[in-house]
Write a structure and sequence with these properties.
- The complex is a heterodimer of chains A (199) and B (102).
- Chain A has seven helices and seven strands; from the N terminus they run E-H-E-E-H-H-H-H-H-E-E-H-E-E.
- Chain A is α/β, with parallel strands linked by helices and 199 residues long.
- Chain A has a single domain (3-198), classed as Histidine kinase-like ATPase, C-terminal domain (Heat Shock Protein 90, 2-Layer Sandwich).
- Chain B is α/β, with parallel strands linked by helices and 102 residues long.
- Chain B has a single domain (2-95), classed as Transcription Regulator spoIIAA (2-Layer Sandwich).
- Chain B has a five-stranded mixed beta sheet.
- The chains are: A alpha/beta (199), B alpha/beta (102).
- The A-B interface holds A 55-56, 58, 61, 76, 79, 82-83, 86-87, 90, 94, 106-109, 111-112, 115-116, 118-119, 163-164, 166, 170-173, 175-176, 179-180 and B 20, 22-24, 26-27, 29-30, 33, 53, 55-57, 59-61, 63-64, 67-68, 83-84, 87-88, 91-94, 96-97.
Chain lengths: 199, 102
């Protein structure tokens, strides 16, 4: 499996990532801890990146575009996949790997402080930025499944409303995912989110 | 997020957003809100026609903009949403929370 080395320029890293996806079917960022990728065989894509690298890329856009190309998906399905995977990635990266909770109450000051906490956690040479996020996509003739797995502390999933509730905090990503997918499963004590899409 | 603030002769403010309205792109939101307040406008249109992607954090920033304008006893309306942006707003019934115009 080819290895991706993150470049200083996020756009350059994105170009290399897109190249790995298109030419080989998967990529793992170096240094890699040696665990085998779960989706190396069969029809699938597997990516495993550090939090720091993944947050700086438009990873969901790259992945959705590549899946659209490989599976000849219609444009609106590609857009649904991009948003659902993006929300899953942000949840895993920020709330999972960086361990940063959504700001509350809603205010520009709280939101700015939240964004600064994220930036600080990414720029510091801390554990959160080094934690991995893994994305595994598998498909057959009828369906596509994308799983996002983080290395955070996890949580016990609850049931969420399917509409944007004015009183809630930032954590509306799962609401969108539920609306965009054919189904989703949270497992591994909240560390793995699996999303299913029709083809 | 790239943006531009335009104030017309009737003191209606337009915030014209460009690009992606996402968490990684929203770090400068406090500056935007300060600039909106500094105009003194109470009627605002957020023009989303240049936005090609929005996520839940982007929608949250729109709610904060609405809060800022409501604190000035004003009104904020969204316009120009298309494609993925329009779909995300529709899926979350966003028009229950903020006025949405074509």
């Amino acid at each position: 499996m080819p290895r991706l080395r993150a470049a200083a320029d996020p756009l350059e890293t994105a170009r290399r990532l897109a190249g790995c996806l298109r030419e080989h079917g998967g990529c793992v960022e170096t240094p890699y801890d040696g665990r085998r990728a779960a989706a190396e065989d069969g029809d699938g894509l597997y990516l495993e990146l550090s939090t720091r690298t993944a947050y700086g890329l438009e990873l969901a856009r790259l992945l959705a575009a590549e899946l659209g190309h490989r599976l000849a998906l219609p444009e609106d399905r590609v857009a649904d996949i991009e948003l659902a995977v993006h929300e899953g990635l942000i949840n895993g990266l920020v709330h999972g790997n960086l361990g940063i909770s959504a700001p509350s109450p809603r205010s520009p000051e709280q939101f700015s402080a939240y964004c600064r906490r994220v930036e600080r956690a990414l720029s510091a040479d801390g554990e959160g930025g080094r934690r991995r996020i893994a994305v595994a996509a598998r498909w057959d003739a009828e369906a596509l499944e994308v799983a996002v797995r983080d290395q955070g502390a996890g949580y016990e999933p609850d049931r969420r409303p399917i509409h944007m509730d004015d009183s809630r905090t930032l954590g509306q990503g799962l609401t969108l995912i539920a609306a965009l997918t054919r189904g989703m499963t949270v497992s591994g004590h909240g560390r793995t989110l699996t999303m299913r899409f029709s083809r | 997020m790239d943006y531009e603030i335009i104030v017309d002769q009737d003191s209606v403010g337009t915030l014209r957003c460009q690009g992606r309205l996402t968490l990684p792109a929203s770090g400068g939101f406090a500056t935007v809100s300060d600039q909106m307040k500094a105009t003194g406008c109470r009627t605002w249109i957020v023009d989303l026609s240049g936005v090609d992607f929005i996520d839940s954090a982007g929608m949250w920033t729109l709610l904060m903009m609405r809060d800022v304008v409501m604190q000035m006893n004003g009104r904020l309306t969204l316009s120009g949403a298309a494609g993925q942006v329009a779909k995300a707003l529709r899926l979350t019934r966003f028009d229950d929370l903020i006025g949405v115009e074509p």
